[in-house]
Task: inverse folding
């Protein structure tokens, strides 16, 4: 064992795993990756978790055991994802309403404008190709609500990308919240409940993007191999992928 080493503990969310993790954290100030087989909470509990800021007991227990002084930071990816989900839900709703129109020409005009519109609306605006920019303009002409929501989505993304301290971020986020309730009611509620964790992002800039990327790569390695018969082969294949094997 070495000071400030990085250790992966399988079964790390069980009692023995937590005990071992606690020892490594206190004795060696180790960085820990805990993996367990416990599933997500039942779907019936998801609304309560989201609405009332109730974390699963397992995560609460892990946080208290291993990270009593930790500063919790909300990954801006998840905030943007909820905003994007509401934007896409509005797009689908407008499409369904258009399909019920009796005016054939108006119906065709709206449906034509909304065809292949999902990723044009969700993609970062500066990354749109010329043809996608033209499609965005068409969408905005036929659906003013989507124009407003898309503008608000881009404004929030800009807040996350340009603000570098919590006070500046909080002021800009509060200003953004004044305009969104009509369009993003779920995001409005979520941001209000998690405001402390969200503004911590402006100081820390912490995301789980790297960890998520590593996890996805490991899943891809397993799929390509149709599984591994032993851990050593899986470990070697993984190390080779990141050029760590000698």
Result:
């Amino acid at each position: 064992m070495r000071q400030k080493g990085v250790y992966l503990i399988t079964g790390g969310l069980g009692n023995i795993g937590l005990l071992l993790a606690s020892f490594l954290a206190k004795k060696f100030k180790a960085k820990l990756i805990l993996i367990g087989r416990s599933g997500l909470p039942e779907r019936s509990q998801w609304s309560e978790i989201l609405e009332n800021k109730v974390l699963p007991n397992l995560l609460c227990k892990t946080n208290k055991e291993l990270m009593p002084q930790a500063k919790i930071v909300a990954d801006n990816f998840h905030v943007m994802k909820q905003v994007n989900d509401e934007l896409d839900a509005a797009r689908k709703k407008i499409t369904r309403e258009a399909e019920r129109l009796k005016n054939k020409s108006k119906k065709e005009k709206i449906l034509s404008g909304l065809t292949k519109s999902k990723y044009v609306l969700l993609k970062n605006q500066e990354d749109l190709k010329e043809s996608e920019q033209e499609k965005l303009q068409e969408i905005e002409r036929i659906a003013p609500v989507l124009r407003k929501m898309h503008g608000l989505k881009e404004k929030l993304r800009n807040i996350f990308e340009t603000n570098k301290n919590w006070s500046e971020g909080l002021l800009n986020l509060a200003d953004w919240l004044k305009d969104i309730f009509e369009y993003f009611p779920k995001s409005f509620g979520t941001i209000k409940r998690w405001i402390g964790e969200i503004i911590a992002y402006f100081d820390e800039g912490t995301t789980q993007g790297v960890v998520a990327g590593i996890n996805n790569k490991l899943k891809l390695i397993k799929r390509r191999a149709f599984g591994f018969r032993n851990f050593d082969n899986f470990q070697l294949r993984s190390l080779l992928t990141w050029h760590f094997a000698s």
